[in-house]
Each structure stands twice: as structure tokens, then as C-alpha cells.
Amino acid sequence: MALQARALYDFRSENPGEISLREHEVLNLCSEQDIEGWLEGINSHGDRGLFPASYVQVIRAAETPPPARYANLPAGGFEPLLPPAAFKPAALEAPPAAAPEPFSLPPAAAGYPFLPPPYGGSYQLSQGSDDDWDDDWDESSTVADEPGSLSSSYPVYEAAGRRASGHYRLSMQSEMSLSSRSRHLAGHFHPPSSSTKSSATVSRNLNRFSTFVKSGGEAFVLGEVSGFVKDGDKLCVVLGPRGPEWQENPYPFQCSIEDPTKQTKFKGMKSYITYKLVSSHTGQQVHRRYKHFDWLYGRLAEKFPVISVPHLPEKQATGRFEEDFISKRRKGLAWWMDHMCSHPVLAQCDAFQHFLTCPSTDEKTWKQGKRKAEKDEMVGANFFLTISVPAGSGAGLDLHQVESQVDGFKAFTKKMEESVLQLNHTANEFARKQVTGFKKEYQKVGYSFKCLSQAFDLDQQAFSAGLNQAIAFTAEAYDAIGDLFADQPRQDLNAVMDLLALYQGHLANFPDIIHVQKGALTKVKESKRHVEEGKMELQKAEGIQERCNIISFATLAEINHFHKIRVRDFKSQMQHFLQQQILFFQKVTQKLEEALHKYDNV
């Protein structure tokens, strides 16, 4: 007989590799050995995956599984129903079955390197750096080390998380009560209660490492955070012709990145590259290293969980000072800066403005701004408190319509990501052929014409001299055309690939953004079900929906901004690409026409 288990409670899968359970459902186990509190099995629908071990009761081969409601009756069978006075413990043939223990996430001793962070925890991302922070721009201490700082009150954990390339620092920040925090740190999960209306609550995600939990979205939706938001921290969503949009920056600006320069310190022992930044709204020049960009990216990715912060150009372990690499990185940083300045929220962020305006030589001001950004309390769950939505529009967001829009965008990003990868591969391959194959083939043709001309030169007849010179000129024309092919990717294809690389970063961000919004919608559905069952007050469910609406407004605003900037970028880049292609073939045509005219006087 196959090893089986009976579900004691309902369980809803929320991550790939998990399966859902219904109470009393019988499952086939793949193994009785649990993996850090999880079992693998097959449910009644034939789906195979993981589920919490504490949510099921293993059925031994010798047992006949009784219904869950009679779990405390004797295992040997059922006695006739007797009045209370006649029902004596001595008549029992076996002790009652043990009640299932509450679910507990395994502590470090059971295989987890750390306890999960509480709701509303924030994370800090950094892509790493190919330059150290050992210069005069910073000091060894961080905000987490300073007494009295927000982060120093809690332990810090390291975990993999939101962005594809980076390290995250999860700091335990929450507005939960002391008793609620202690219950969570103990790892206990209480199954849904069927008691009175006032005691029913929306369940928390079992996976405490999901983006929805780590971003603080869950804590916000469940109403576990509160705080004072200054007017300068408010982020406004307005209703535009395409739906929710971020309120436009009243003072738009641009910033150029030019003049990459190699610098040294420690008497030439350490070298690095600085870039000159000039903002149009201040006209001020500052110089920044790549590590400063990297620090800023980490702060912004931590602060804005539902905004797609553009990824920085990739690092390179070797050849960091080669001209081609420096030029490519500068162009990538220019695209990054363009998207930063174009975003209504990111462009006005204090950390970004500090990065653009702090004088390169003012060490004290830089450190003050850096510490202020690192001590920013409007991160994680608190970030959602800063979002202001149109007045009276909460009821105007239809749950099913929002879900349909988000699902449509999810399908769009998946298809776009596949297309971007395909185009990037094709462009890379075509550029490689132009630089090597096409150049070689055209120059091979030119060499053949040159050999023919040299053979004709052996004829000393005067009337053949013009033909010989024309053929020799044709050989030179084909040799020059080969050089044109080799140089052309710098003019058109490389720019297309730089844009594709930037959008690959955006497309990698959106699954986590969508996950936060989906998690909020799930909580709303659960609260509505509780109201229908009479387990939750309507006012509490409306509060959950109102907070979910805030996340939905922000998500839809970010989606609309992505589409707006996408159309702008690809229109401009395709125009540039075709213009460069036309110029290229005009140059080729000109070379061929010049060669053709050499035969007119032969």
C-alpha cells in the first residue's frame, strides 16, 4: 500500500513547486521524510509538489483513516452513542489520537541559517562593486553600526531576493505589537479559526521569504504599519487618459554623462574611472565613480518595491580600463541616467538629487546625504504609506478588472522578454559577422580583383593601361567596403543592444512587482470570503481592500509609465538604426559608383 497522508487543514499554494490541499483530502506521499518541515506528495488532482508537514497526518499501513471530525475517538472502532454519564474513559480501547501540533518553521538547528524576518522587513540591494569604498568619500562604519539608528535595533540577515543580480540585507522593521512579534519569531502558524467574527483574521503567507512579505506589502495590506508621512515624502498617483499614472515632475530635467577619466590614488597603487555628470536643472558638474552609481541603485531598489529601478551596466572582472569597455559602460550609464530622469518618482527622490548635486570635493556633505538616505524610514511597509491616490477612487477600482490588466501585462512582459532575448542574440551574431565575416569576404573579393589587375599589368600595351587602373581601383573600393562593414555595428547595432540590455533589467524587475500586487489581491479575496462566512467585520475587510487599492494604483501607474517610456525609446532607437543603415548603404553605393566611373574612359 502506498504511503498516504490526510490533510488536516486547507493550504493554498503560493509559489512554484507547492501544491494546494483541502481539509480531509487524502494524498500519496513520495517519502515520509520531511525536508525542513515540508513533505512531497501527490494530491487528489494529480498535482505533485511540496506542502507543510504539520498540515497533514500520515496514515500508517495498519490504520483505517477515520474522518477528521472523529479523530479523538478510539482507534479500534466506534461505540454506540451513550449519554454523558455512561461514557467512561475505562471503556476506551485506545488513547485518543494526539492533536496536531501548530505549524512551526524550522529554527536554525533544523537547517535554516536564520529565522524569517517579520512582516514589513526591508531589504537593501547592491550589485556589488568593482571599486572599494576605502577612499575619502566614505568611512568604514555604516548606518547599521551607529547607536540609535533604526537598523541597529534589530539583527540583520542575508538572503537572496528581489533583483536578479545582487545581495539583499533584510532588516527586521515592523510596527507589530511586542506579543505579535514574539509569536512570529517563535515560528508558529495558527490555522484559520472558525470562531466569532471579531477573532477572524486574514492569514499570513506561509513563505516568509516571498517578495510580497519582504517588501512590506503584506504588513501594509493587513494594517500592521502606521506612521507620519511628511508632505515632501508623498507620492501622488493621478488618473490620466490611460488610467492611473504617476504625477508628472513639475521641473523635468536631463543629465549627461561625459568624459570618463582614469584617476589614481595611493601613489598610483589603485586606479579607477570617474564620469562627469552635468544636470540641466542646476548646470552643476560633479564627478562620480561606478561604485557611487551602485550605491544609489541599492538604495532606490530598497526604497521603491513597486517601481522598476533600471539596472546598471554589467561589471567586468578584467579589462576595466580598456577603451572599448569604458565607452560601452558610459553609453550604458547614459541610458540608465535617462530612465532615472524620466521617471516622475525616481527623478525627485532625495537620494538621487543628492547624487546629482553634491560637490565632488565636499566630503562632509556627501556623508551627511549618504547617511540620511540609509536612515530613511519610508522603506519596506512604510513606503506604501507615502502613496497618495485620487480621492474617492478606492471603490472605483474593480478587483477583477485590475487582476485582468495585471495578468495581461504579465503575459506581455513574458513575450517581450523572449523577443528581446531573440533580437539581442540575432543582433550580436549579425554584428560579429559584419566585423569578421563580411569584412573578410569583401576584402577577399578586393584581393582577387587586385591580382587580376597585376596580371593585366604584365601586358605593356598602352591601350590596356586604363583598364588595369580601373580594376585596381575596384579592388580598393571592395577593400574599403569591407572596412565599412566592420565599423557599422558601432553606428547602429550596438546602440540597439544597449537599449535591449536596459529593458532586460526592467523585465527582470516586474515579476516581483506583480507578485506584490497579486499578494494584495489574494488578501482581499480572503477577507471577502470571511465576510461572506460571517467571520470578519465588513469594516475590517474594507480597510484591507482600501490598502490593496493603493498598491494596485501604484502598480498600474508603473505599468503605464513603462509603456510610455518603451514607446518613446524604441521609436527613437529604430529611427536612429534605419537612418544609420541608409547612410551606410549610401557610402557603399558611393564607393561602387566611383569605381564604375573609372571605366568610362577606358
Automatic annotation (TrEMBL):
Q: How does it sit in the membrane?
A: Peripheral membrane protein
A Gene Ontology biological process noted in the UniProt record is: endosomal transport
Q: InterPro entries in the record, alphabetically?
A: AH/BAR_dom_sf (IPR027267), PX_dom (IPR001683), PX_dom_sf (IPR036871), SH3-like_dom_sf (IPR036028), SH3_domain (IPR001452), SNX18_PX (IPR035703), Snx9_fam (IPR014536), Sorting_nexin_WASP-bd-dom (IPR019497)
- A GO CC term attached to the entry: cytoplasmic vesicle membrane
Could you tell me which residue ranges the SH3 domain spans? 1-61
Where a 1,2-diacyl-sn-glycero-3-phospho-(1D-myo-inositol-4,5-bisphosphate) binds, per the record, is at R289, K291, R329
| Protein name as catalogued | SNX18 protein
What gene name is listed for this protein?
Snx18_1
| Segments of skewed composition (Acidic residues) | 129-139
